[in-house]
Amino acid sequence: MPIRLSTLFFRSLREDPVEADVNSHKLLLRASYIRRAAPGIYSWLPLGLMVLDKIETIVREEMANAGAQEVHFPALLPKEPYEETGRWEEYGDNIFRLQDRKKADYLLAPTHEEVFTLLVKDLYSSYKDLPLQLYQIQTKYRDEARPRAGLLRGREFIMKDAYSFDVDDAGLEISYQSQRDAYERVFQRLGLEYVICAADAGAMGGSKSEEFLAPSEIGEDTFVRSQAGFAANVEAVRFTPSEKIDSSNIPAAEVHDSPNTPTIATLVDFANKNVSRHPDGEFTAADTLKNVVLKLVNPDGKTRLVVVGLPGDRDVDQKRAEAWFGVDVEQAEAEDFEKHPGLVKGYIGPTKNGKQFLGLEAESKIEYLLDPRVAEGSHWVTGANEDQKHVFNLVYGRDFQADGIADIANIMAGDPAPDGSGELELARGIEIGHVFQLGRKYAEALGLKVLDENGKLVTVTMGSYGIGVTRIMAVLAEENQDEKGLIWPESVSPADVHVLAAGKDEKVFEVAEKLTADLEASGKTVLIDDRPKLSPGVKFADAELIGIPKILIIGKGLADGEVEIWDRATNNRQSVGVESAVEQLLS
RNA sequence: CGGGGUGUAGCGUAGUGGCUAGCGCACCUGCUUUGGGAGCAGGGGAUCGCAGGUUCGAGUCCUGUCACCCCGACCA
Fold first, then answer.
1. CA(A19)–C1'(B62) in Å?
2. CA-to-C1' distance for A16 and B46, Å?
3. Strand ranges for A253-331 from DSSP E
4. Chain centre to alpha carbon of residue A430
5. Could you read off the pLDDT of A521-578 as tens digits, one per residue?
6. Region A92-109: what's the mean pLDDT?
7. Helix residue ranges per DSSP H, A275-346
8. Residue at minimal CA–C1' distance from B35?
9. pTM of this prediction?
């Protein structure tokens, strides 16, 4: 049966609702796909559900192709499994928590690793049962601090989450690849541009993880890529330490009085006015070694300080720092400096009076880590650990040492890719999928073991694979639109053809109905604008807003036996005979 | 949690302490109109976010509070 605009639960808005500021959100609201129910929580109207269903169908088909079986868990779960893995605490305020009448704790699941693991544990106990892939398409709940951009970051959202279970790492690798391949097929069928980015796998485990990012200005993730194909989330980029360079012609380090130079800019200015450079040339921020004091905050609240030396033209990228250290990272505050009087703010350096200072300073026990760009043998202008003094020609390896590296500096466009594949460019993206080798973390915590062929218990190794279904709809809307409205790809459009009866003649409506029936009989789905007594302008505008890619206009040309096929994307209109319209639309 | 902003009908908005809170869209009735968001006439719909205060009188001023939006922090 066709979708009839005369009775469809639909009302287009002529103006943008103020609550929306990104185009996809505005258009989905204006065209009656969704309505806001609460911050980050949306109600689905008929048109919205149709698109959602199309996306889910594609996901289901490709999950089946990958050999995954569909199950369905409750969204409402008891807290116990999440306590066992520590996530009841770990997730903090991000979980929606509630209690039943007996005061037992429940949560609205933000993710389902635990219950999938327990379900497999419940049913299976032999290596012969593996490998296994399960998935569900389920509503997830996360009490995000700041929901954004309509469906893009909601507090309630639909996710396809799949999990693989294998006896060994080789099996996991195969399962991972099969899901990864399925993701590529899903996104290709949806007509979505995507970049597969190496992702930060988290501090524990060090397992493999990749994100599928849809490049977009409104994206929340920053990634880097090179022409030759390297791509990674900025958090996951790891640079190799620079090769040792010759320092035999660098003069001995010398300390200069450098009054009022607590920042890199003032220091560079001072150096250019007062110090001759060897060899000749201007000092720049890149010649200075900036030493940043960071406070690492463990989940239990304990903190420790580290000092990181990095070229003065770079800053610490907090997200990269947290990925590197695996804990929260904060800037050191005034009270931290008070506790460590050796750290002279604005004049921190790795040496004092010509001797190694940081790290070797027994009482401070502060680790000194270096950016991988700092090569052994390179010479620097840096703090002398005395107020108003800097040291010049300080050579790494000759004059100071480090306790290790910290690859946490911000990445700049033009930086070389770590794999030597050329210069990096920075771009924004929306995470639409994530494939992740979990390893044995959850299996271990929840005791998922099977007997191997020798009758020995082995812990199962797992992978988890997510696709943001509702988010994909937002991305598709964002990527497929113009100033008039949405332009859905055929694969997810609410219908194949939008039949538009423009006019008042009964004949127009008769022919529109006839062509609708013919199209449906030929296997096409149709939305028909059969609203009577509505001026054509309104119908044209609504057709553009709704965004079905093919529009069939029955109107003024009918007197000559002609109708028009209007391509929403190209705006091309072509008159065809009534009899050949269906055939044209089928091709 | 920090910074900024906004709350008036379903949506978009106007409203110097002073009459019955105004307009456009949408909605209802009638007539006319029908290829780019029609016209005319008539109509329904608002406890002006909430609470308290000042005042003869508060949408408007004051205090408090709540909600939402944006930026940041945060976010397998």
1. 29
2. 21
3. 254-257, 289-297, 303-311, 328-331
4. 5
5. 999 999 999 998 889 999 999 999 999 999 999 998 888 999 999 999 999 999 999 8
6. 86
7. 318-325, 334-339
8. A536
9. 0.85
